[in-house]
Structures are given as C-alpha cells and as structure tokens.
Specification:
alpha/beta, Carbamate kinase, VC0802-like, 8-stranded mixed sheet, 6-stranded antiparallel sheet, about 35% helix, about 20% strand
Length: about 425
C-alpha cells in the first residue's frame, strides 16, 4: 500500500476550525497514513504561538514567579479545541501532568514540546489514528545531536495509521530534547525517509513558494517545481517556508516534497524534487531571496597567493572565536571574509588583532551593514548574458554592488549591497526577468 507522510504546521492547527480542515484533508486521501503535527500557531496577528507561551510558562515557574495568566491562556486554547471538536480526550489530566512537571523544574525543552504533544493527542483521537509519542522513536545523542532513528521509525511501516508529534525526541536518559524552532518540518522529513514514503506533504498557510518575498515584490509568481539544491540556496537567504534542515532527509532518500496550503487544499502548491531532467519547465531564474545583517572583512596583502596557509590562519582565528564563515570571494592579493554581524558582535577587535598578529596583512578593513542577495536557477548556466542582465537591472536603480560571488555549481549568483538597498535590488532583478 502506498503511503504519504503529511506534516501540518502551526497555522493549520491554530484552532478547532483549522483542525477540521486538517481532518478533511487527511480523510480525502487514504494514502495519508502518517501524520506529523506542530503546536498550534497564531489565530491572528495579535495572537501568540503556543510554543512561545509554553517557554514563558517554564521561565516564570523557574524564577518562582506567577504563571497563572500564561497557564490560563494555554489551557483555554486546548480545552476549547477539545470541546468544539466533540472529543472525549481527558485534556484536564494531560494538562495537570504538564503543570506538575513544570512546577517541579522541567526543562524548557520539555515545556516547549508539550505543544506538539497535545496537538498529537487531539489529532490522533479526532482521526481515530494511533498516537506514537516522538520520544519513543526520535533519538538524540549525549550532546543533543539528532541520532538517525530510521530503525525505530521503520517499525511503524505496515497497515498502521499513526500521528506523531513533531519538534522533539528523547536523549538516552529519557529527557526531552527539541530541534531548533520550526523543527516539526525536520521530524516530518525524518519520518518520511524512515518509512520510505512515496511523498512528503508539508501543509502550511501559503500556496507554495514564490519567486520572491511577497512583502518585497507585489504578488510574485509561484514556483511550481524547484530542486532541493535551488531551495537550499533560497532558504539560506531567507526564503523560510520550509525549514532548511528538513531538506536533507528527504533529498537523500529521493522523496518528493509538496508544499501545500491547508486553507486552499486544491491548489497545486510547490513540488520539490531531487532533479529536473527536462529543460522545458526550467526557468533561467527560479527565485530571488535576500538577507540583511552581514559584515565583510577585507584583507589585503601583497603576494598573498604565494603564502602557504594564509587562508587557513584566518579561518582558524574565526573558529577560535566562534564565528562561522558565510562567503569568501577572493583575488590574488585580496580576500573578503563575509560573516554574520550577530556572530561577530563583541568579537571584532579580538578577531582583527589576531589576524594582524598571525597574518601581517598590508590592510584590513571591516564593512558592516551588508545585505546578501541570491539569484537562483538551474537554467542560469545555460543562458548567455545572465550576469549582465542582473547587474544592469540593479545599476538602473543606482544601487552599488559591493561584492559578487558565483559558486562553481553555477546555479546562483550572489551579490552584496547595502542593507538599505536590499528590497530595491530584489525588485529590480525580479522585474528584469519576470514579465
């Protein structure tokens, strides 16, 4: 029997009305036998996500402060869901157990995970599916790194229909450990790989991916098909509909991912594939994304290219100071090290001093407030004049390009502009390629 793993995000589970949409979607396709759920998200702009409230509850409790208001908000959300859905779930007992553990000093990870746990309980009863707690099948090692759990999850394959909470698993000692925020996507991908699913569906509140951020470009075109390689480039630059760590499990297993909208289930969404063999549906540009908040360390030294170990010394200094490298365009006697400003914060003088001591550069300068823009597309390498068209579009807006970087894969061109020019640069490139 074919089977699909379907993951539903927080917006899909925000209240009883949204959950009813989820139930209808699952029941409309018998292959949707493995369901992964997030914690309830916001019901409106002024609302709070359940995960944020749970973190707040645990923090107040650990400080010995009153958490009654927060507890009340969480309780009312879940109690109203159970009531409106007409379920017999003993939500009161479940909530009392959580409250007891938090009052006894439970960790932030435990507290945050209860959002997904309770979602799982509600959805499993509403569907009549078996509830499988994530702490029994998702494992982390002694230092909190995810440990491949395919063998445990593989035991679920068969005629079973199950609901698994996303976002968390368990350490070897049984304590709860969470992924990074948005980690329910990761759980869904892990489950899909372990169960050798034909398809992984990620249900959210948007109709797939767009060629640019709708907050920057008005009504950008939808991306119908994208490869994992292209999406990785776009996600890195801020196109965050799909958690970037969730790509790897399904990509390595060759599983197709569908990004779909719970509120518009008949929309085709976006299909994410490993490869696109046909050229007929490959645009020159698949998408454009930008991210602000970078700094550039420009290091110049005569005959740098002849000095063995020069770059290694710089990278070692960054490593010693806990600063990761983002990009590294270079010339014969000059190299630019691009880093996240937040990671460099408070360490700038230390890093510069160490580079001067270890590398003896002729000059070293720091340029902050840089935005990085990625223009991504499998078809770019086969279209003459792509770079010229991109840079001409930006120049027409009087935007100065401070840095250019193109990877050897030739599926992306990355340029650096001032933070203040980021949105205008994205719009100029989009308008140049999309009619």
């Amino acid at each position: 029997m074919s089977h699909t793993v379907a993951k539903f995000g927080g917006s899909s589970l925000a209240d009883a009305n949204q959950i009813k949409k989820v139930l209808a979607i699952v029941k409309s396709d018998p292959s949707r036998r493995y369901i992964v759920v997030s914690a309830p998200g916001k019901r409106n702009k002024e609302d709070k996500k359940i995960t944020d409230l749970l973190y707040e509850w645990q923090k107040l409790s650990s400080l010995g402060q009153s958490s009654k208001e927060v507890e009340k908000m969480i309780r009312e959300r879940y109690f109203s869901m159970v009531k409106e859905l007409g379920l017999s779930l003993d939500i009161k007992s479940e909530f009392e157990e959580i409250a007891k553990k938090i009052s006894e000093g439970a960790s932030p990870d435990y507290a945050a995970s209860r959002g997904e746990y309770l979602s799982g309980k509600i959805i499993s009863e509403a569907l009549g599916y078996e509830f499988i707690d994530a702490d029994t099948c998702i494992s982390f090692d002694a230092v909190g790194q995810y440990q491949k759990s395919d063998e445990k999850l593989g035991k679920l394959v068969g005629e079973r229909r199950v609901v698994i909470p996303g976002f968390y698993g368990a350490m070897h000692d049984g304590s709860i450990k969470t992924f990074s925020r948005g980690g329910s996507d990761v759980t869904g991908a892990i489950v899909a790989r372990a169960l050798k699913a034909e398809k992984y569906e990620n249900w959210t509140d948007v109709c797939g991916l767009r060629m640019a951020d709708p907050r920057v470009v008005e009504n950008p075109k939808k991306i119908s098909v994208v490869t994992y390689r292209e999406l990785r480039e776009l996600s890195y630059m801020g196109a965050n509909v799909f958690h970037e760590e969730a790509m790897f499990p399904v990509q390595e297993a060759g599983i197709t991912t569908h990004i779909l909208n719970t509120n518009e289930p008949n929309d085709s969404g976006t299909v994410i594939v490993s490869n696109r063999k046909s050229d007929k549906d490959i645009r020159a540009i698949t998408g454009i994304a930008g991210r602000k908040g970078f700094s550039v360390l420009t290091i110049e030294k005569a005959l740098m290219n002849q000095e063995v170990g020069f770059v290694r010394k710089i990278l070692s200094i960054l490593e010693q100071n806990g600063v990761s490298l983002e990009h590294m365009p270079s010339g014969i006697d000059i190299i630019s090290i691009i880093v996240d400003e937040k990671k460099l914060e408070g360490k700038t003088e230390t890093v510069v001093r160490a580079i001067k001591k270890e590398c003896s550069p002729d000059t070293i300068e720091i340029h902050p407030n840089l935005a990085m823009i990625a223009v991504v597309g499998l078809g770019m390498a086969h279209v003459p004049g792509m770079a010229s068209k991109i840079f001409t579009a930006v120049a027409k807006e009087n935007i100065n390009i401070r840095m250019i970087n193109q990877g050897s894969s030739e599926i992306s061109i990355i340029m650096g502009v001032e933070n203040t020019d980021c949105e205008a640069a994205i719009r100029s490139v989009y308008n140049a390629f999309v009619k």
